[in-house]
Amino acid sequence: MTEPRWLDAVQQRDWRAYVEGSVRLADLLDRDLKSKHGLTMAEYEILVRLSEAPERRLRMAELADIASQSRSRLSHTVSRLECKGLVARNNCGADKRGVFAELTEDGFAFLSKAAVDHVATVRDFFVDVIDPDDLRAIGRAFTAIADQVAKAR
Amino acid sequence: MTEPRWLDAVQQRDWRAYVEGSVRLADLLDRDLKSKHGLTMAEYEILVRLSEAPERRLRMAELADIASQSRSRLSHTVSRLECKGLVARNNCGADKRGVFAELTEDGFAFLSKAAVDHVATVRDFFVDVIDPDDLRAIGRAFTAIADQVAKAR
DNA sequence: CACGCTTGATTGAATATTCAACAAAATTCC
DNA sequence: GGAATTTTGTTGAATATTCAATCAAGCGTG
User: Start and end of every HTH marR-type domain (chains A, B) (predicted)?
Assistant: First the structure.
């Protein structure tokens, strides 16, 4: 049996601060987006990724991957977005199993409006309240974390 | 109408890295805790907070507050933890509306085991993959963010 | 004291997410 | 070529979370 390696006091404090802060921030961003535009962060993320893809469309599997969602979850969520007319599904010629999720014109217009408010909130509660150097540190750190998580799978 | 203030390229990249990394990390921690001990992070957090409270118990409202959960959610979650025998509810003498959530002996023992594995995972995917200075930066930043979110309510 | 107002906590229905099972098409391998 | 396997995507049931309504108790004020 191996001895558990606990965090030291400072590490513990920083880790806890992160857990609490990130939960509260996520909660705020969700509420903000939901109250102003009826979207969750997960839905917003899907729209953003589609908007940036060539022809504003992506295969479901790839979209699930870059939006960090399970395929099942994406399937359900895209169905909801489809009902709202923001996304459309069309099947992919090359691979007959494949399905493209495509951002509609309405979806793009809707996203453009939502993005303005969302970015303002991200500024107000994230970018503008932290030191620029600390923001860089966060960027570095979470890139490394994402890599590590990806490596483990 | 005010001009939207977009993020510059670097801010954008760092913000996105954070969103992606934090979602992936949260997902991994949840899966890890769930597969090894049948707990979600939210449930784990509740147990931790109770374990640190005097007499290992807290009023529901206070627990909801420090665990960053809605009261409704806490109510449901505590019911589940109660079914598992990890937490008990007892009513508070002073304020007849009040309810204490208390960590049981079983709950404490259970948490002790779970914590060993959880901390190891936090090390493997968070603490040990980032620069110590960056960890400090994260601590500072998310403390400021949590304050800002709290201020806004 | 009694009226309105706030706080503490729970409930059930609506909504969202996970999980396991499935079907269909593509790929691998002999 | 064709059986076995993998990949893609969806589905429905089980589970969890949100949301709005409710109830009971405390508090403040005229």
Answer: 1-147
CATH T-level fold of A21-121: Arc Repressor Mutant, subunit A (1.10.10)
Signed CA dihedral, A144, B138, B119, A72: sign only: negative
Which nucleotide, over all strands, has the C1' atom closest to the CA of B92? C8
How many angstroms separate the CA of A97 from the C1' of C22?
14
User: What pLDDT sits at residue A153?
Assistant: 73
Phi, psi of B126 (to 5 degrees): -130, -80
pLDDT tens digits for range A10-48 = 999 999 999 999 999 999 999 999 999 999 999 999 999
Interchain pair B142, A4: CB under 8 A = no
CATH 1.10.10.10 fits B16-152, yes or no: yes
Segment holding A111, helix H or strand E = helix A105-125
- Tell me the CB-side half-sphere exposure of residue B70, using CA atoms within 13 A: 6
Instruction: Kindly indicate the confidence band of residue A6, based on its pLDDT and cuts at 50, 70 and 90.
Output: confident
Shortest CA to C1' contact from B73: nucleotide: D17
Return d(Cα B63, Cα B72) in angstroms, integer. 12
| Overall residue count recorded for chain A in this entry | 153
Count of CB atoms within 10 A of residue A31's CB? 12
With beta carbons under 8 A apart, name residues in chain B contacting A127: 7, 11, 15
Burial of A66 (0-12, 13-18, 19+ CB in 10 A): middle
Instruction: State yes or no: pLDDT of A4 exceeds 90.
Output: no
DSSP state of A110: H
pLDDT 10s digits, B8-65: 999 999 999 999 999 999 999 999 999 999 999 999 999 999 999 999 999 999 999 9
Note whether A7 contacts B127, CB cutoff 8 Å. yes
A13 touches chain B (CB under 8 A): yes
- pLDDT at res. B152: 84
